[in-house]
């Protein structure tokens, strides 16, 4: 029986109110879980891809990691280590005597003829600077006796910040030795001058095992300085066959022992060490990638890369593959590398992988230095053999071809230009001869040598020798004293 009064409106029973917060919570959790799940998936995929890239590197080049590279180096006794000898020579008080740059540039202009004597002002300038060296210069002259060397490196955890002050100091010794050769040639001490050149060449062996591209570039500089000094010495007079033979042999030894492959393997190993540190949480990507994004989202991604390194770590395996491919290219003969390196460089510029774009080295440019240096060393060795041929010829005549030098037993064969694998070029000129490589531009420019623009197109790489009557020409006068800065 109803209790409602007659005529009262019928009110339907109220429905229970839905609770919305569980749905909101689920939505929030889903919103949070999606990126976290993606990040977890990214880490899983990165780990697998990382292992695969390492396995590929292992198959191509076993023992490629930094600790393995260093462990595989044969020990060098301290008394045989040229690198330690350079440190001992330079150590006293760290008074590294280097030529005052402004004054030197005025007294020795870049266009000063190689076959001209030094003027009194130049002689005095060098003599005054060398007077400060004392016995250290004598010790530097004896570095030619060393055939191996290696600096002891404390490689930093991130590889890139490793201190290499001793590496750079070798340049000072090269400066001493090349200018010492100038002074000795001026005094007609030709054999002694060549010994100083040989010691400068020897400095390059300190970088044969060096796992840094900067070490390779310093080695190139040492070799270049030495060849230029040899050219100047032989433009001042005549040395004995025995002295020439020693320098020829040392030049060939350095030609066959450049550290290009060693440096490329070291670069790969060092970058791997860095990214392993990032993956382990010991190192940060902060400062390496910021500001390199493409547009707003790219910048946002890179700005957070150091907080969420997985964003970049998932791209690293492709960088490792890229570096492994570069190492394999580097193992090829010089003339087979350029096309592949050019293609690799184009791949980097077009690559959407930011890690590859940020961390790839300027390999093509550095490889040009390798081609120039090897061409220069080989040309110098062959030019010295031509000088020996001339000295032993009854009429003191230059060889007609390099085959003549081979027949005399002063070369085993006509060498191949490292750039294009063709016979090394040889030309007689109105001044004497030039032996040359076509250089990194791949063009035969007729033996045009330009020491100040050796990396420019239209220039070859090589060594010139003058006929005897054009050697040791009259010195050019020095600039007025007021033009020489203090």
Write the layout of secondary structure elements.
Elements: H1 21-60, H2 66-71, H3 82-90, H4 101-107, H5 120-131, H6 135-141, H7 165-186, H8 190-202, H9 213-234, H10 241-255, H11 260-279, H12 295-303, H13 310-313, H14 316-330, H15 338-350, H16 354-359, H17 363-392, H18 402-407, E1 425-428, E2 432-437, E3 461-466
Antiparallel strand pairs: 1-2, 2-3
Helix pairs in contact: 1-14, 3-7, 5-7, 7-8, 7-9, 8-9, 8-10, 9-11, 9-17, 10-17, 11-14
Quick rundown:
The protein is mostly helical. Helices cover 53% and strands 3% of the residues. The chain is elongated and about 145 Å long.
How would you describe what is shown here?
- A hairpin with a 3-residue loop joins strand 1 (425-428) and strand 2.
- The protein contains 18 helices and three strands.
- The protein has two domains: 71-262 and 366-483, no CATH class; 284-361, no CATH class.
- Helix 5 (120-131) packs across helix 7, helix 8 (190-202) packs antiparallel against helix 9 (213-234) and helix 9 (213-234) packs antiparallel against helix 11.
- The chain has helices at 21-60, 66-71, 82-90, 101-107, 120-131, 135-141, 165-186, 190-202, 213-234, 241-255, 260-279, 295-303, 310-313, 316-330, 338-350, 354-359, 363-392, 402-407; strands at residues 425-428, 432-437, 461-466.
- The longest helix is centred in the first third of the chain and has 40 residues, at 21-60.
- The protein has a three-stranded antiparallel sheet.
- 37% of the residues are buried.
